[in-house]
Amino acid sequence: MGITVQNITGETAMVIWPKMAGCVDSFYSVMYHPNWNSMVSSYTRKSFQKEERVPTSRSSFVVENLTPLTTYILCVTCQSANPSSDQCRVFNTLERDPASTSNTKKELALGIWLTSSVLLLIIAAILIYGCLHLLCRRRRERLQGQKGTSKEDHRKAWTKSMAYTSEELGRQSQLMQDSEGKHPGGIQLATIIENPSACKEPVMPTSKSRERVPM
């Protein structure tokens, strides 16, 4: 078939083949396998590690993700047919390209940096949410404490007022009792003033009062 392998690097290789008249409205199968010495001589499709299907409109294909410093066998057939020896080529990949190595390291570092940034953002969001939740809870507790304090102050004021009223009533009651003990006549007079009907009946003077009346 005149298959050629060109532009070989440590991880890629380009294979070129002439178009076949029998593959019209079909596809080409590009099969390759590392360590070709381990393959059987029958070249069956099952012996190949990977297989790519290419449209018939194309006559070249770039094989990627190869292993550096490795011997490969590559075959091109029409529509997944078992290849023959004239449809295969053997080639060796080169060392890993330093530029690709640096690019890989840069991609790895970028991936690590992005992952770390995302994790830091998540942690910061969690911390901010926790702080806001804690502040809101403390503010709610403070407001509830102020309401409870105002209610307690009102209750204490009311209790104090009631105690003061009770004390005043007790003091007035004591004063009245004292006045009754000292001035019984005054209490009787107050009773007469409050009860005018009591004046209809004559008040009989006591023995002491009789003695004091002049003859």
From TrEMBL:
Keyword Transmembrane appears in the UniProt entry: yes
InterPro entries on file: FN3_dom, FN3_sf, Ig-like_fold
Keywords: Membrane, Transmembrane, Transmembrane helix
PROSITE patterns in UniProt: FN3 (PS50853)
Transmembrane segments: 110-132
Gene3D superfamilies cross-referenced by the UniProt entry: Immunoglobulins
Domain (Fibronectin type-III): residue spans on this chain: 1-96
Region (Disordered): 195-215
Designated name of the protein: Fibronectin type III domain-containing protein 9
The organism's taxonomic lineage, starting at the top: Eukaryota, Metazoa, Chordata, Craniata, Vertebrata
